[in-house]
From TrEMBL:
Catalyzes the reversible cyclization of carbamoyl aspartate to dihydroorotate. One of its GO terms (molecular function) is dihydroorotase activity. Its cofactor is Zn(2+). It comes from Pseudomonas putida (Arthrobacter siderocapsulatus). One of its GO terms (cellular component) is cytoplasm. SUPFAM superfamilies: Composite domain of metallo-dependent hydrolases, Metallo-dependent hydrolases. It is an enzyme of class 3 (hydrolase). NCBIfam families: PRK09236.1 (NF006688). Its EC number is 3.5.2.3. CDD domains: DHOase_IIb (cd01318). This is Dihydroorotase. One of its GO terms (biological process) is purine nucleobase catabolic process. Belongs to the metallo-dependent hydrolases superfamily. DHOase family. Class I DHOase subfamily.
Length: 445
């Protein structure tokens, strides 16, 4: 007997939309056909024409474990992820302790194997003194290597030109870069402190972490990648100016790629008036002109993938004064429905959203047998309903441990009805399915 049969779905996959049934057996997509008859399955779902898409693969999350579990942990944040149609995630290294050693990497993998409801991978961090460890990494064991280009986070600040040069030369796999120029940011913040002391307004955040700080760092990273032939992926672009650094085209043809995050596509600097520090993040949400340029670049294949940079903090932390309010916001539960709003706005087609949230991510990271609706591939699926009328996000129970969402005042037209992770029901009928266990992502490198 098969595990799952989904009937009467509208599949969205590899540039096509078509009506079909889909059969899951032994965790994998066993058959896709216009009609599947004479087969019994443990679970049968009548999709009633809802979209069946590959689950979103999120290339950038901060699930806070180990070290900051009061904000979230792998169990809580992966539950929120599957509720939003995210079936796989790649977690960032700035935990406590940071993922700077193979022992820390192995510890994270053990934790995820015990508690994650989504498939998982982990990025390795860079410090001034672990380059030999990075050079010896097996590219199949890490999602990528993450460098903070002159942007300090704990002991992971990397601003020494010689260290950066060695990293770009010897990194054995894809190098992910957070690009902000710290000296510029510190100088800007000092000016605002002279005027406002501790009470810097939230709306000053994109003026402190401004477009120049982003461009100076991004242009350095791209220049180094070109000089040394590094496989570079620049994270969370936020400015129109940075877009000139990247070329349009299919992700499989590039050795320098770029990501944009959902919140930088949906919010702009006018939203600080209502949301304040709730949307304080690094790099900062900037102007509407920047937002619109990012959208256009995404549609034109200059930007390659959509991620979340999910980074939960408690409301108590977010309500502090500017200098003590941490940057980051929780996004995984509503990221895919929010990205689908771009279809209704005419920014992207439905097939483009699927490409940017799944196909292109799988290609970019060389993820084995995931990211597509193909027979023989792992069954990572999201069944999405387009509603006749938008529904308020405030009606949703928030599954992230931090208990809030930046979309709380918004209405979304799309809702994830069912999520399947490695052939297992992970989210169905408004409930997390407790028996689902994610698997480690495998990388063909």
């Amino acid at each position: 007997m098969a595990d799952l049969l989904i009937r009467n779905a509208r599949l969205v996959n590899e540039g096509r939309e078509f009506e079909a049934d889909l059969l899951v057996a032994r965790g994998r997509i066993d058959k896709i056909a216009s009609s599947i008859e004479g087969v019994r399955a443990k679970v049968e779902i009548d999709a009633q024409g809802q979209w069946l898409v590959p689950g979103m693969i999120d290339d950038q999350v901060h699930f806070r474990e180990p070290g900051a579990e009061h904000k979230g942990n792998i169990a809580s944040e992966s539950r929120a992820a599957v509720a939003g149609g995210i079936t796989s995630f790649m977690d960032m290294p700035n935990t406590d302790p940071p993922t700077l050693t193979t022992a820390a990497l192995a510890d994270k993998k053990r934790r995820a194997a015990a508690s994650s409801q989504a498939n998982y991978g982990f990025h390795f961090g860079v410090s001034r003194d672990n380059l030999d460890t990075i050079a010896a990494l097996d590219p199949r064991e890490v999602a990528g290597v993450k460098v903070f280009m002159g942007a300090s986070t704990g002991n992971m600040l990397v601003d020494d030109p010689q260290v950066l040069e060695r990293l770009f030369i010897y990194c054995p796999t894809i190098l992910l870069a957070h690009c902000e120029h710290t000296p510029s940011i510190l100088a800007n913040e000092a000016l605002w402190r002279e005027r406002h002391g501790e009470f810097i307004p939230a709306a000053a955040h994109p003026l402190i972490r401004d477009a120049d700080a982003c461009y100076r760092s991004s242009s350095l990273a791209v220049d180094m990648a070109r000089r040394f032939g590094t496989r570079l992926h620049v994270l969370h672009l936020t400015t129109a100016r940075e877009l000139a650094l990247f070329a349009p085209g299919p992700v499989s043809n590039k050795h320098i790629t770029a990501e944009v995050c959902v919140h930088h596509l949906l919010f702009d600097d006018s939203d600080y008036a209502q949301l304040g520090h709730l949307i304080k993040c690094n790099p900062a949400i900037k102007t509407r002109a920047d937002r619109d340029a990012l959208r256009q670049a995404l549609a034109g294949d200059v930007i390659d993938v959509i991620g979340t940079d999910h980074a939960p903090h408690t409301l108590e932390e977010k309500r502090r004064v500017y200098g003590r309010a941490p940057s980051g916001l929780p996004l995984v539960q509503h990221a895919l429905p929010a990205a689908l709003e771009l279809v209704g706005e005419g920014v992207l087609s439905l097939t483009q959203v699927v490409d940017k949230t799944s196909h292109a991510v799988a290609r970019l990271f060389a993820i084995r047998e995931r990211g597509f609706l193909r027979e023989g591939y792992w069954a990572d699926l999201a069944l999405v309903e387009r509603l006749a009328q938008p529904r308020p996000v405030a009606d949703d129970p928030i599954l992230s441990r931090c208990g809030w969402t930046p979309f709380q005042h918004r209405h979304l037209r799309h809702v994830v009805r069912t999520t399947v992770v490695s052939g297992q029901l992970a989210w169905h009928q408004g409930q997390v399915q407790p028996r689902c266990q994610g698997l480690p992502l495998m990388f063909d490198r």
